[in-house]
Amino acid sequence: AGERDVDLQVVVLSASGRAQKPEFDPRAPADIRKQIERMNLAYGRYDFVGIQRQGAKFGAEVTFDLPDKEALAIRPAADAERPDRVRLGCRVLDEQRKPILISPMRVSYDKTFFLQRLKGGNGILMGVSARKPGAPPAKP
Fold it and tell me: What is the edge-to-edge ordering of all strands in the sheet holding 122-131?
């Protein structure tokens, strides 16, 4: 595992259809479901694709696999003014590794934020969170 500055986690969900009351794959983590419900997206169904975790060093990019040979690349960096936060340079890459979505974020540790990749009427939702290595697990 070597030295790492941050542990990154990406929860990937595939969203499809349209409905007032969405259906969730039961494998989707409960906290992620609650957050998506609050976001009021119009999708009818959320299928759980997977959870990936990687340790990363500040300034070094790590990639996470997405459906259809796409990828999410994240480059974390320290936030000089706010040590309780981390900067995450997020890029969604297509199968040729060209960026299709670039989203620089400043986030608190242990908070999940969502990126959405639209594909026709469907979407890929990525719930991204960062933790300090060795930090105790977040309370649900």
Answer: 23-24, 45-56, 6-16, 122-131, 113-119
DSSP 59-97: T--EEEE-STT-EEEEEEEE-SS-TTEEEEEEEEE-TTS
Task: Give this prediction's pTM.
Answer: 0.91
pLDDT digits (tens, 9 = 90+) for 39-88: 988 899 999 999 999 999 999 999 999 999 999 999 999 999 999 999 99
**Cα dihedral sign for 12, 43, 97, 88?**
negative
Helix (H) or strand (E) holding 48: strand 45-56
Q: Whole-angstrom Cα distance, residue 65 to residue 79?
A: 26
pLDDT digit string, tens, across residues 105-117: 999 999 999 999 9
Name the DSSP class of 33: H
Could you give the CA distance from residue 99 to residue 79 in angstroms, rounded to a whole number? 24
In the block, tokens 């997405």 appear at 66
Q: For residues 16 and 139, what is the distance between their CA atoms, to the nearest angstrom?
A: 30
Bridge-partner residues for 127, per DSSP?
Answer: 11, 114
